[in-house]
Amino acid sequence: MSGHDSREHVEIKDGDQTVAGAEVTTSAGSEGTVRASLHAAAGHIAPGRRASLVDAVMDLPQVQESERLQAAAPLGDGESLERLRERTENSTTRPAGSSVLLEASIPAGGSGQDSPERREDTGGEPGREAE
Fold first, then answer.
1. What pTM value is reported for the model?
2. How many other C-beta atoms lie within 10 A of the C-beta of residue 39?
3. In angstroms, rounded to a whole number, what is the distance separating the alpha carbons of residues 110 and 127?
4. Candidate CATH numbers 3.40.30.10, 3.40.630.30, 3.20.20.70, 3.30.420.300; the one for domain 6-120
5. What pLDDT is recorded for position 27?
6. How far are the Cα atoms of 64, 70, 72, 116, 129 from residue 102, in angstroms, in the given order?
């Protein structure tokens, strides 16, 4: 990757504990593609937190300005994958070890399924810790 990479770390918290996080990378030479790696803490995570992480990632300005998304999530993380499919178009997935890789188009404006509940769940500005 070039020296012009943009990296963003996004976290979702439950109280003072981080329950899910993502690393988001865009590159000047990526031709409109953004890459995201999603992960969650071990153990029980309240329903909706993984979806909130996807929403926080998809709401980042550099993601909304991109045309394509390449995302990696833990294999079996149905909540994240479902939200990624809702927020993107023409998605394809494939397993890769203990992860699943998703490639998709980002809708113009990056809005996808924009609901009031989703906005509430993110708990704040994208790129910042959300409660």
1. 0.79
2. 16
3. 16
4. 3.40.630.30
5. 82
6. 17, 6, 6, 25, 24
